[in-house]
Amino acid sequence: MSADWPLPTAPAPDAADLAHWGEPVVAAVGQQDAATPAAARAAHPLLDLLGQLALVLQATAPGGVRRQTGWWGRLLGRDVEGELDARDWQSRLGVLLAQTDVAAQALREQSSRYPTAQATALDAARAIQRWADAGAAQLSTLPAQLQPVLAQRVDHLRRLAAVRQLEAGQWQLLFEQDSALLARSQRITETLLPAWRQAVLARRAGDQQQRNQQAAQLQAQITAELASAQLDSTDPQTRLTPFKEITP
Questions:
Q1: Which of 50, 146, 230, 233 makes an SS bond possible with 142, Cβ 3.0 to 4.6 Å?
Q2: pLDDT 10s digits, 200-236
């Protein structure tokens, strides 16, 4: 993706102009601003729904929720509350799965825009860097007393370009995280969960102990997938400074 960014011009030999040299590209990039990676997070609703789904599965085994609750939680009655909530959700499993599909589609639609945002950020970084390089090349042509003014501006432009490059990397990371979450969600809802439900329904037929073991194994797989999804979807630790907050 390439935008028609303003091209570098020869800096005017005036301190006031030099202090704002490169402003055309800075203004153009600011007008192109979209949501920052930190704000573009639609993954949490899907994670919450998958967590509720895991709670429903735990309720199928006697004391399932209670075994997941520490002694302090049991003392406060949270284990009983959890089982009651899970049993309520169990009767609404179809609704929960439908909500999960809607949340997954919302995440899929949002993350499909990340590659464009990444390309825009990279293109903006290159445009700003062109101005920084052009200014650095012109330093020696200026009077000695004006060179520090332009040098400071060049340094500022380089920092702006670095911020855009960092932003592009974060868009890529978000895209990878959400793609992994969507793949795990699909595996849970389309492969593991149907197999688990079949095992639960078949408990009354054949070897009940074997069916219970099979259901427990599938539940453990679903729980592991959810734990991995939660870990993979952790927000990047690097804080991105908003472009508009950077001042010379």
A1: 146
A2: 666 555 566 666 777 778 878 888 888 787 776 665 4
